[in-house]
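Exercise: predict the structure of this protein bound to NDP.
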Amino acid sequence: MKKALITGITGQDGSYLAELLLEKGYEVHGIKRRSSLFNTQRVDHIYQSPHVEHRNFILHYGDLSDSSNLTRIIQQVQPDEVYNLGAQSHVAVSFESPEYTADVDAMGTLRLLEAIRLLGLEKKTRFYQASTSELYGLVQETPQRETTPFYPRSPYAVAKLYAYWITINYREAYGMYTCNGILFNHESPRRGETFVTRKITRGLANIAQGLDRCLYMGNIDALRDWGHAKDYVYMQWLMLQQEKPEDFVIATGLQYSVRQFIQWTAEELGIGLRFEGEGVDEVAIVDSVSGEDAPAVKPGDVLVRIDPKYFRPAEVETLLGDASKAHAKLGWKPQIDTRTLCKEMAHHDLKEAKRQAFLKQNGFDCAMSSEG
Ligand code: NDP
Ligand code: GDR
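Solution:
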């Protein structure tokens, strides 16, 4: 039985990857952070109590900022594969906590690689690094592929640049099987609530159900290449199953604006929207409402406004990936397109909003926040 260790197992990708590896018969170990509230909601459905015999899903307390802890876990687990998905992954937050982001996202990667090497596991343990399209930042070529020069635009992206190169350096210096997946944005109903797609699907569903009144957004002209997280974690596994380690871009090859994602989400909720105004004065106004999913919305309502507080000090305006290398060498193609992804997320969040609205109507408190 192969053993895998996943950092960031409680996150979006970590939860899908853990499911995939369990299906493939792995013993899955994950690192979770200590938190004052439960933080394992995304993996609770596969959780196994420590009192069960022959567990194949085991969580360890740990943190990417603590090398002695990482070394102890790797020594104990002796993993065949390490997936480094743990990170302070929010670009806007990285401007507010740049040093912490560098410590976890850059140095955390080094700590894992050094632990593998110092424990003498460099010929046994394969290593996957969660690299990102944010490395391209101010894009130098469109579409972006493995050979496109990088130009990071945030403390997050600069930290991930270090992680990208240290992963390659350990491959070249010590002959380790290490690789980078340069993944473009990928989303799902499990996406963190403060990333733009989830903020939109959750925010509009809440408004439709009368739990909120208006969604405040940043730069809705930004263009992204959005895929489904389930498709992308499969690639993470596939990259570690090759004869030789290599780096791959993973993307759908299509890009859309944030504004388009808002429009699609509204359509799924039966709301016709029109955009009026420009720049910080742009708003999205309800044109029509059909069906029963948006009882709290009527024509003329302003559903979306721009709040400059969500603008970033330096923005990545456009990203579009070229995954031909992954198509050619690994036979990989995404199965779920962006429109279908949006539909799945919107209906997931509508269901949750209906549940919250029901609780509210029956006198129970429900806390709503659309910060992000
Ligand atoms: P999430 O933000 O959903 O998950 C991040 C995970 O990292 C969580 O489990 C979080 O724990 C954990 N984590 C945060 N800080 C630490 C720390 N100090 N020590 C240990 N663990 C920590 O991210 P995604 O699942 O979306 O992304 C996975 C990885 O892929 C990240 O590295 C991200 O930067 C990268 N990436 C993501 C893309 C995307 O579009 N989703 C695209 C390209 C790259 P907790 O649950 O306690 O917060
Ligand atoms: P990104 O994702 O920065 O690409 O990083 P995010 O969804 O946060 O932003 C995408 C684009 O939308 C614009 N935007 C807003 N973003 C947020 N969060 N909130 C808003 O209100 C808002 N309004 C407009 C942003 O300015 C941006 O242009 C994600 C993360 O998962 C990273 O970890 C990962 O590396 C990259 O994707 C690829």
